[in-house]
Design a protein that fits this description.
single chain, Metallo-beta-lactamase, Chain A, Arc Repressor Mutant, subunit A, seven-stranded mixed β-sheet, elongated
């Protein structure tokens, strides 16, 4: 299995807005967890007139700190990478304080029946942006232009935001330095995820700012490693199925022998996403229902 050069060291402080690069600031929410690492990093772009990226969870203290720290500036744009509960609910609190419009690709496509709060951070089914963004659209915030990049995979509505003047890309949960992303069907899709990673490989930004964890410098080799990891994992699944039919719950123990038990549910969903990808390519087939609990084998 190809090694992904994860970066676990994350320097940050709770409760204060930190300057992390020229005209880029970050406030970290106190929502540490198995999927959020040390918490949601809410980013502020610009000076005077600013954009806020991923206001974070429904945490009044987090938003109060954000608003009070920016009291002498104008928040003109609230950008949301996607509507999981660690990213978008804070937008409602922030809007109540500053009345800025929200911008995102759209609401969660799966609806409330696909709320994965038991596996991931869960879906903010109440979130619908004021402004629906298109891939390639550009926003002007003060002296900066922000390019909107649709990167489905982790969720179908996932957006990254590039700031060409800063040579930076805000990668949400699509690319994180500390961990891989969870792909949860049906809204999460492995084919889309791999295509979205390939899309970033053709871009020129030299630093990524994920919503969770540390920044990622020289990201292209890292993104290639993420792609190689997923493709190799799918080959592992094929090798398992050469021994006979398998259920996903049994694959988890075999493929992730040292995985934190809290992450087994997420790993099952990622395996399911890989299985759906392999079904589309004709490599494997379902013996029973084509579900998370189904039984799978090599195609005959």
């Amino acid at each position: 299995m190809p090694e992904i050069p994860f970066i676990q060291d994350h320097q940050f402080r709770y409760g204060e807005i930190e300057i992390v690069a020229p005209n880029i600031r970050r406030l970290t929410a106190r929502n540490a967890g198995a999927f959020t690492y040390h918490g949601t990093g809410t980013y502020i772009i610009g000076q005077g007139q600013v954009a806020v990226i991923d206001p974070g969870p429904d945490d009044p203290d987090h938003i109060d700190t954000l608003v009070s720290s920016l009291s002498s500036e104008t928040i003109s744009h609230i950008l949301v990478t996607h509507c999981h509960r660690d990213h978008s609910p804070g937008a409602r609190l922030l809007q109540a304080a500053c009345d800025a419009p929200t911008y995102a690709f759209g609401p969660h496509a799966g609806g409330i029946e696909h709320d994965d709060s038991a596996i991931e951070e869960g879906v903010d089914t109440l979130f619908t942006p004021d402004n629906f963004l298109k891939h390639g659209e550009c926003l002007t915030v003060g002296d900066y232009e922000i390019e909107c990049i649709h990167t489905p995979g982790h969720t179908s509505n996932h957006m990254c935001f590039a700031v060409p003047g800063q040579d930076s890309l805000f990668s949400g949960d699509h690319v994180m330095a500390w961990s891989t992303s969870v792909i949860i069907p049906p809204d999460g899709n492995m084919t889309d995820y791999l295509a979205s990673l390939a899309l970033l490989c053709n871009r020129t930004e030299s630093r990524y700012w994920p919503t969770h964890g540390p920044p990622l410098d020289s990201p292209h080799d890292y993104v290639q490693a993420l792609i190689a990891h997923r493709l190799e994992r799918m080959q592992d699944i094929i090798q398992l199925l050469k021994t006979g039919p398998w259920r996903i719950v049994d694959m988890v123990e075999q493929l992730y022998p040292k995985l934190d038990i809290r992450l087994h549910g997420a790993a099952s969903r990622s395996i399911f996403a890989a299985i759906l990808y392999l079904q589309d390519s004709g490599e494997i087939e379902a013996l029973e229902s084509n579900t998370l609990d189904g039984l799978y084998q090599r195609s005959s």
